[in-house]
Amino acid sequence: MQFLGHPESRVPAELIPMLMLNSHYSNKERTVPHKREIFEIKVSDHFQRTSSSQSHSIILRDGNLKVVIPAIELARALFLHNVHLTRTALRPNGLQGMAVVDDIGEECIIRFNKLSDYPLSNLSKQGPCKHLRWLLLNPEATRSFNSIYGKLQQDENTGWNFNFEPPPLKNWRLKIAGEYDRDDPMLFYVEEIKTVYSSSFRYDKKVSIYHPKKTDVIPVEPSNGKRPEINRTDPDSHLDFQATPGNYRKRDVVSEEGFQFICDSEDAVNVMPGKALSRVAPNVNITVEPKPDTSGVGHGTANGSAQELDWAINRSDCDDPTNPETPKEVSPTGNFQLFEKVIKQLMKLPDYEHKGTQCLAMPKPNNASLIYKNKLTQEARTFHCAYFYYRQTPLVIIEVDISDINDKHSLGSRLFGFSESGKDGLAHIMKACSEKGVRWDSSANEAHCSVVVEIKHPSRTKKVDGETVLRTEREYETAWIESLDRAVKRAVTQ
């Protein structure tokens, strides 16, 4: 690698997903300091090659326009989306060492090997799942991916001059960023591929993914009534190439947004259910500052102490306002305990049937609003959901944690009954709430809910002989339960 103003240096190959020509880096954040031309092309002919003593490039054409892409950038956009796929590409057994395809029955199953280091968290969205389907089921994609190791073995240079054999790219579309040649307006040099639109490929069967570490967590309440407490982790640990990751540490997950690999298939790729696992979710202590931490690159070892950097692109789904992603379940905060306690008492009243209580993360808005983040933790703020039936009517109570915001920002609880799918309705109204600066969006609520009832929090004080005094904790809980019960009864009679 050649960083401006520094001698030529070497970095671990696992960093390929984050390395781009003419980018600037600050710790783990990549920025582009200069203006670039950004547009889409449709590849109109077969690719050509050009090489020098230092690099290999691929030439694509869109009509008369000639586009030159560094081979390593094209491979990054097609295949090397994360450190785990990069490691796989540099192993002799390639994709077979990561997963095998079981195509015997009516359903095609991608089975990850027990020893595979590909993390389950990378399969939480459709984007990476569909990319894996294309990579493992399309023979041209598989052959191209495995050529990375073959070309490495053929390279006789002292330094690695990255090369591979691309798949046929005619009729593919790419969104590219870079600059035109100074002398030739029909010659364009690509610095970054921002979007890949793959060509059509037919999958004859439904495709699912099996991962041996998949578990379905069943949240349970602590037997002693107390949840374990954990401290926050460093949200921006220091990247140190000399640090050795520990195999007992959680990975430092960094997802760069802005890149998409879009497959020409609407069929979903689902991860198969795993073993049921009962677990008490711990509380996160947000009052204690997180200790500074370090991230290293490479496999964790027994003697290592750093987090393992897990840097990736294409981890999220395409931004589709008509289909927001389902809110993610997270570890509860201390404020969740009071909500949980009140809901538990409410469910003891006649005609209530409790289905579950969750702590979820506010979805990231599509606009520039940052209120969805907790000011203290700088992570997505939490909201609490209680799912239940009242006289056989399915309802949800939602409470957003805004304890870090000043008293002028009020946001009462809401009782919802969803018009169609409760899961989809919840995603829509919470995305709208995020984009409103953590305020309820009445139009979104009306569009997706058959029941919307405001629930005001009871006052922390009461009048006694004309004087204002603080309510005891028990009195406050009782007043809150009564307020919730009144709202529920209003909902089923409106």
TrEMBL record:
Protein's recorded name: TnsE C-terminal domain-containing protein
Region (Disordered) location: 219-244
Biased composition range(s): Basic and acidic residues: 224-239
